[in-house]
Structure formats: structure tokens, C-alpha cells
Design a protein that fits this description.
This protein is α/β, with parallel strands linked by helices. It is built from 8 helices and 4 strands; from the N terminus they run βαβαβααβαααα. α1 links the parallel β1 and β2. α6 packs across α8. The longest helix has 36 residues. The radius of gyration is 20 Å and the shape is globular. 25% of the residues are buried.
């Protein structure tokens, strides 16, 4: 009989691990989401003799976002494949993604690269046992259903507001808030001087220039600002 191999066999006692945290809304960045997720990851690591060496925070990014729009996840994956750390701990699988297909693709990618992805809340759901796979997919479907209901609820609220007031303001375009035009001009100037997107993000962070949300600039956020400047 062919024996299935659990992804946990790739991890060894006292192994080093990364922690991946994600909150989807701007209002959650200063809430307890990151604190709760990190506490769960630390508790799991301590109980299993693992050492957390770096924490990656995805700030205000939806669980349905494409990977190119997840700078912290992209940075983490690049390091996983280069510095010897092979394990990532998350609070729950929906921190990786709420979409079932995305969840499964990430797990398959980790298995293919012989990396270990651990969910602190569902530690045995990542094995290859058929019953575990079924449970994981059922949970993923539930998370996706939750997300669909939330989107429908928000859409309904916007439609009701539009019907009563004739107007429903969406997210403001970058550059309309006080001070943002100066930031756009600064980024455009650096780009015209020949700097790469990544170098602009690093320079903006070193100069203490803050983005609208989060604590630091990433190449994707710099790219969005540059797109805004060309749309004017």
C-alpha cells in the first residue's frame, strides 16, 4: 500500500519557523487581529519546540487577493526558498486564503517544495490523509461562503444608501487626501531618475514617508501610486 506523507514530516524538532499574519480591513490593522494571530502561533511553536525567527504581517489585504498583491507573503516565500527556514505557522488556514481553490493551491505548492505549512488552530488538517483533505476542503468552502455573505451584505448596504441619498462614496483615490500629492510627486521624481520600484519603496521607508495604510511601502503599493499619477 502506498503510504501518504504528511507535510509535518518535513519539519524537525527545534526547527526554525516563520509566522504569517493577515488582516483584511484597514480598520483591523490597529485592532487585536495581529496580536491574537501571533499569540496562537507562538503558543503552537512553544508547545512543539519550534523557534520563530521572523514574522510577516499582511496589512489590509483581502484573503481573495492575488499573490502579486500580497507583498509580505511574496517576501516570505522568497526567503523560504533561500535561507534554510522551511516552516510557516498561521493561526488558521483562512489567514492564508479564504478561497478554497487558493487554499489548496498553496498547500500543494508547499508540498511540492517540501515546505511545511502549519495551522495552529487545525494542526492535523494539512496531512495527506483523505479524511483530513475532505475536512480541510469543507472548512475552506465554509470560509469562502462566509466571505461571499459578507460581500453581499456590504453591497446591499451600499445600494440602500445610494437609493436613499443618491450617493455612496467608495474608497478615495490616492492623491485626494492632504499631503498625498506631495508623496506622488516624490515617487514620480524618483522613478524618472531611474530608480526601480523596490528601491523607491526602500527609500520611502528609510525617509519615514508613510503610506495611507500600514507601516511601510512595498513595491506593489509604489506601483499603485505610479498608476494613479499616470491616470491624471
Amino acid at each position: 500500500m502506498l503510504k501518504t506523507r504528511s507535510v509535518f514530516e518535513y519539519a524537525s524538532p527545534m526547527s526554525k519557523a516563520f509566522v504569517y499574519l493577515r488582516v483584511s480591513g484597514k480598520g483591523q490593522i490597529d485592532g487585536d487581529g495581529f496580536t491574537r494571530q501571533l499569540a496562537a502561533a507562538k503558543k503552537y511553536a512553544e508547545a512543539n519546540g519550534m523557534r520563530i525567527v521572523q514574522v510577516f504581517r499582511e496589512e489590509g489585504v483581502s484573503g481573495a487577493a492575488d499573490w502579486e498583491n500580497r507583498p509580505a507573503f511574496s517576501e516570505m516565500m522568497a526567503l523560504l526558498l533561500s535561507n534554510g527556514v522551511r516552516t510557516v505557522i498561521v493561526e488558521r488556514l483562512d489567514r492564508v486564503a479564504r478561497d478554497l481553490l487558493v487554499q489548496e493551491s498553496v498547500i500543494a505548492d508547499f508540498n511540492r517544495k517540501k515546505l511545511t505549512l502549519i495551522s495552529a488552530a487545525e494542526p492535523d488538517l494539512l496531512s495527506d490523509d483523505p479524511s483530513r483533505v475532505l475536512m480541510r476542503q469543507m472548512l475552506g468552502a465554509f470560509f469562502q461562503y462566509e466571505k461571499t455573505l459578507l460581500v453581499a451584505k456590504l453591497r446591499g448596504a451600499r445600494q440602500r444608501k445610494r437609493m436613499t441619498s443618491g450617493y455612496c462614496e467608495g474608497r478615495k483615490r490616492y492623491g485626494v487626501t492632504s499631503g498625498e500629492q506631495d508623496v506622488i510627486a516624490h515617487i514620480v521624481q524618483l522613478r524618472q531618475a531611474g530608480m526601480t520600484i523596490s528601491a523607491i519603496a526602500d527609500k520611502s521607508n528609510s525617509e519615514g514617508i508613510k503610506p495611507r495604510t500600514g507601516q511601510k511601502w512595498y513595491p506593489t503599493s509604489v506601483q499603485r501610486v505610479l498608476k494613479t499619477s499616470t491616470a491624471d
